[in-house]
């Protein structure tokens, strides 16, 4: 061991403290990493190098990388302590952070060194080691992945931040496809050990539930309320360091795990009740057991509300404790913490922060409200009514009696304001009230979030307009300055530099290696659209990604696909509004055309689907079965050979996504206009050079504006047209009767052609489409086919397609999460970068 450190790492440009640790722990050469791995294999894992499995090597390398993050992690903490900059607290019930090892190597600039170190253990392809990592599936889809991209950008931009969430023991289920159906398997992501977290039992927080409230009077005779919960749970923080791209600082994810206060009830045990003795412990600990699927069902509602209060309370108490430790006055809370509520899941923060300030800290109401309001901001991620959380009053009262009292008070004061503005207008009061009294009484969490926050934003320009115009019109009229937009973004590090090594190499060579942090540099690609030699290189990158995906499809599904065919991809959660079934009907139309021999002008295609359906969402699961039925028929029909293949890739997750986005020629973003808040997959595809076939929905609108209408395949009704379609009495069966093609398609489905002769199987789907079609699949069908014809025609002109592809990448820098996070920082959070220039203390 040596005590000396290189003052500056040649690879990443990161200075390290000379006095700190040893080479195996902090050195950044391949030899240092190798030694670090060897040390961890031996001392941390108890393995000898001779019989180390890929998993052992993964663990050893991960520990070695984590060591290198530790200096940055501690330096960042130190900076917070001494410089006291304002920091972001990003509260989110979901964080879909994906595999950590390869990403952290990229962030630290250690990819080549790690490959070399692994080589010395006999590993020829590092991917063999990276791919054994179990990713923490602590999210359902876009919302959780967005939170992860934002944490990464915050770290890369050196904006001090903590992502606060829940350490679910079981994340989103693993998806198998059996007999064409989705089968859900428990996600045991922790089973092999997860090396990326640091447990801090001394920073535990206690959270109450149930019980009652009591009134008392303090020494000054002031009226005070105390909550006496009937149950308490302990939250133990598990910290995941979030590396920034080639910087000295490090962000942090703080995930709470629930534990019983007394892990064992000795009284019950002594009386012979062993089961009873552990029951409470088991009950409390189910709190952080499992991530809820976003299916909007009543199941587990109580537990879900408990989860929300649990992580919000732990996090707010943690922030207060942090101020206390640093000697900062409570009144300065908003100057030190910008608390962002990621959708309504953490909206209970409005009441909990009030409770902590009024009941526990003894602040008066107005002061507490000013602090709460100046600290919290809320992002809305959906307009779908089923996803706007409401909690039945009785459930709420039984779990959070004090919070309900506070919400009543907040509501009374708010409604008084509205009353003054709209004298005598009871209707408005009913519409905006935090308590919904239209049916069984319920707490509207979105209203609570809007009232308690200083800013409310939607996640794409169109979505933010709709948030103001249709979701919260009365609130927007009352507080126009509160409402704003921040269009989503995705990190170009994970989604291009890491996921697409071919494109990364080409970009670094043509526009310079700094493009991942200077995304505007992508614009420099534009003139290259006229350079045929460059377009060949561009096409070669795409082909390499397609080959890689084709190999994966073969390995996973035993299906051979042609990498030179057009890869036409739709990957996202399965939901009717996202209209995977529109894509599926389009496939049947294409199939019929092939069967009729009308193949002139058709581009050979591989159509790929991926995505999970919520376990309780029967129609979404039937759509998966439908796609698989179509795939089986088409793939086994010799007439389709060389023209069409259909693949449903099981278990879409971050790891798989990294292989999929770079391989797409065409990205399907075909939701019913007005229903997709933003979409972020659409951005990942476009940044990787896929062309979009899409509706004017969510961020598609802005993608089209950026890449140019001529480089985007637009189709379908606008939000207004969809609204008038329904207002005018939409009768899809008449549309079907008027279209020989649709009639033929439905007849074929009903004949059992895609279900082994079973004419019943898809009936619910057919009836839904022909009988009501709430998502206007039938109404947009002809336009969709016409747009697909334009795709076929464009594909025939190789260079024209490649130039369009290049322009998609060149013009999508706007969709970097760095831009989005900078907007939040400047307009909502008022936070500025805090640079770690030098060493951290030992
Ligand atoms: C989702 C929207 C997407 C959006 C992501 C991230 C929820 C509730 N909403 O359109 O459906 O891209 O949030 O903002 O998951």
Characterization of this structure:
By secondary structure, the chain is an alpha/beta fold. It is built from 34 helices and 23 strands. Strand 21 (666-669), helix 26 and strand 22 form a beta-alpha-beta unit.
In whole angstroms, how far apart are the ends?
Answer: 17 Å
Question: Radius of gyration in whole Å, from Cα?
Answer: 28 Å
Q: Give me the secondary-structure category.
A: alpha/beta
Report the β-strand fraction as a percent range. Answer: 5-15%
Distinct ligand kinds = N-acetyl-beta-D-glucopyranosylamine
General form: globular
Major sheet summary line: 10 strands, mixed
In terms of topology, how is this protein built?
Blueprint: H1 23-26, H2 30-44, H3 54-83, E1 87-91, H4 101-108, H5 111-120, H6 127-130, H7 142-156, E2 161-166, E3 174-178, E4 181-185, E5 198-199, E6 205-209, E7 212-217, E8 223-228, E9 231-243, E10 250-260, H8 266-270, H9 274-285, H10 301-325, H11 333-336, E11 337-342, H12 349-360, H13 365-375, E12 376-379, E13 390-392, H14 393-399, H15 401-421, H16 426-432, E14 435-436, E15 442-444, H17 445-452, E16 455-458, H18 461-471, H19 473-478, E17 483-485, H20 492-498, H21 501-511, H22 532-557, E18 566-571, H23 580-595, E19 605-610, H24 618-636, E20 644-649, H25 654-660, E21 666-669, H26 681-687, E22 691-694, H27 700-707, E23 713-714, H28 719-727, H29 732-737, H30 740-750, H31 763-771, H32 777-796, H33 798-810, H34 817-829
Parallel strand pairs: 1-2, 1-11, 2-10, 11-12, 12-16, 16-17, 18-19, 18-21, 19-20, 21-22, 22-23
Antiparallel strand pairs: 3-4, 5-9, 6-9, 7-8, 9-10, 13-15, 14-15
Bound molecules: N-acetyl-beta-D-glucopyranosylamine.
């Amino acid at each position: 061991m040596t005590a000396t450190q290189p003052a500056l790492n040649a690879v990443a440009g990161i200075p390290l403290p000379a006095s700190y640790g040893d080479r195996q722990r902090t050195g950044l050469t391949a030899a240092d990493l190798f030694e670090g791995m060897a040390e961890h294999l031996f001392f941390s894992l108890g393995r000898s190098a001779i019989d180390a499995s890929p998993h052992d090597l993964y663990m050893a390398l991960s520990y070695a990388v984590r060591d290198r993050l530790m200096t940055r992690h501690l330096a960042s903490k130190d900076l917070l302590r001494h410089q006291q900059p304002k920091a972001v607290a990003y509260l989110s019930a979901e964080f879909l952070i994906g595999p950590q090892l390869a990403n952290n190597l990229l962030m630290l600039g250690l990819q080549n060194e790690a490959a070399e170190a692994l080589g010395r253990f006999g590993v020829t392809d590092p991917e063999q080691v990276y791919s054994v990592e179990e990713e923490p599936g602590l999210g359902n889809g876009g919302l959780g992945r967005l939170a992860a991209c934002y944490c990464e950008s915050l770290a890369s931009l050196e904006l001090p931040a903590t992502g606060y969430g829940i350490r679910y023991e079981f994340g989103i289920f693993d998806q198998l496809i059996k007999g064409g159906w989705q089968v859900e398997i428990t996600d045991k992501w922790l089973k092999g050990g997860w090396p990326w977290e640091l447990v801090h039992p001394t920073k535990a927080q206690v959270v109450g539930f149930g019980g009652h409230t009591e009134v008392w009077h303090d020494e000054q005779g002031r009226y005070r309320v105390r909550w006496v919960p009937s149950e308490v749970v302990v939250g133990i923080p598990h910290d995941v360091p979030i590396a920034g791209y080639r910087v000295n600082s490090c962000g942090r994810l703080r995930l709470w795990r629930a534990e019983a206060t007394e892990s064992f009830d000795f009284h019950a045990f002594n009386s012979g009740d062993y089961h009873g003795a552990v029951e409470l412990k088991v009950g409390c600990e189910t709190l952080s057991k499992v991530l809820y699927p976003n299916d909007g069902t009543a199941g587990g509602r109580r537990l879900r509300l408990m989860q929300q209060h649990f992580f919000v309370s732990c996090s707010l108490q943690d922030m207060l404790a942090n101020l206390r430790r640093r000697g900062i006055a409570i009144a300065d809370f908003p100057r030190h913490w910008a608390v962002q509520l990621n959708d309504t899941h953490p909206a209970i923060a409005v009441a909990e922060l009030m409770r902590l300030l009024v009941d526990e800290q003894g602040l008066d109401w107005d002061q507490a409200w000013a602090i709460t309001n100046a600290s919290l901001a809320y992002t809305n991620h959906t307009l779908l009514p089923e996803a706007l959380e409401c909690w039945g009053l009785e459930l709420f009262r039984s779990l959070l009696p004090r919070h309900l009292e506070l919400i009543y008070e907040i509501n009374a004061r708010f409604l008084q304001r509205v009353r003054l503005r709209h004298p005598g207008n009871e209707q408005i009061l009913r519409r905006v009230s935090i308590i919904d009294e239209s049916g069984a009484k319920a707490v509207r969490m979105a209203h609570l979030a809007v009232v308690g926050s200083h800013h409310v934003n939607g996640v794409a320009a169109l979505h933010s307009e709709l948030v103001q115009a249709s979701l919260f019109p009365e609130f927007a009229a009352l507080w126009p300055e509160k409402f704003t937009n921040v269009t989503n973004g995705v990190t170009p590090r994970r989604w291009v530099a890491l996921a697409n090594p071919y494109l990364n190499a080409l970009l670094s060579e043509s526009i310079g290696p700094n493009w991942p942090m200077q995304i505007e540099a992508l614009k420099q690609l534009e003139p290259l659209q006229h350079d045929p030699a460059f377009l060949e290189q561009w096409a070669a990158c795409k082909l390499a990604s397609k080959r890689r995906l084709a190999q994966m499809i073969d390995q996973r599904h035993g299906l051979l696909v042609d990498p030179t065919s057009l890869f036409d991809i739709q990957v996202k959660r399965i939901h009717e509004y996202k209209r995977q079934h529109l894509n599926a009907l389009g496939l049947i139309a294409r199939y019929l055309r092939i069967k009729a021999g009308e193949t002139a002008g058709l581009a050979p295609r591989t159509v790929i689907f991926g995505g999970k359906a919520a376990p309780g969402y029967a129609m979404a699961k039937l759509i998966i079965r439908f796609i698989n039925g179509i795939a089986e028929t088409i793939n086994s029909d010799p007439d389709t050979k060389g023209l069409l293949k259909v693949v449903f890739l099981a278990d879409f997750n971050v790891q798989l996504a990294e292989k999929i986005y770079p391989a797409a020629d065409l990205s399907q973003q075909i939701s019913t206009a007005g229903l997709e808040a933003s979409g972020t997959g659409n951005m990942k595809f476009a940044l990787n050079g896929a062309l979009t076939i899409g509706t004017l929905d969510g961020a598609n609108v802005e993608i089209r504006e950026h890449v140019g209408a001529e480089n985007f395949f637009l189709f379908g009704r606008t939000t207004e047209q969809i609204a008038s379609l329904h207002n005018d009495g939409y009768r899809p069966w008449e549309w079907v009767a008027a279209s020989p093609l649709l009639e033929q398609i439905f007849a074929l489905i009903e004949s059992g052609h895609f279900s082994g002769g079973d004419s019943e199987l898809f009936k619910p789907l057919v009836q839904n489409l022909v009988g009501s079609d709430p998502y206007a699949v039938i109404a947009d069908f002809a336009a969709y086919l016409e747009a697909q014809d334009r795709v076929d025609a464009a594909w025939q002109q190789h260079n024209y397609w490649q130039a369009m592809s290049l322009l998609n990448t060149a013009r999508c820098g706007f969709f970097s999460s760095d831009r989005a996070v900078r907007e939040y920082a400047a307009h909502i959070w008022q936070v500025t970068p805090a640079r770690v220039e030098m060493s951290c203390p030992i």
